[in-house]
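re: ur question from yesterday

yeah so i grabbed the chain u mentioned. its 143 aa long if i counted rite. heres the sequnce exactly as i have it in my notes:
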Amino acid sequence: MSIFFAFLHHVAAFTLVAALTAELVLLKDALTAASARRLQAIDALYGASAGVLLIVGLLRVFYFEKGAAYYFQSAPFIVKLSLFLAVGLLSIYPTLTFRRWARTVPEAGKLGTLRAIIHAQLAGVVLILLCAALMARGVGFIG
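ran it thru and got these structure tokens back, copy pasting raw so excuse formatting
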């Protein structure tokens, strides 16, 4: 069962990165009603993958891997979890903006802000991957 949850965790992580990248690509050009709808669908996929990633990750921590006591003594794990929450909080503004586009025409002035936020989210994901590599090597244990 542990292997299945590890696989699911990785699939969710790759889906999350793909969704963020697709959002960034769609925000590169002028928006149309069709591209706004695509952004909404991709953002829903992003949210679903983030939810799966969090739930499966916590199940792995508490039930399928080394246990919560082990992980919560790891500075990279704590940073990784904090970065995941920060990336999630950053996603609120784009999600609310994309949802508003269902009722109104996309505002061209917000595109730069949205791109900057998504770049920050992707940078956060890169740092999460660094923390995962540090965890895998046993670096940064507090206890």
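noticed a couple things. The longest helix spans residues 33-64. also The mean pLDDT is 93.
anyway ttyl
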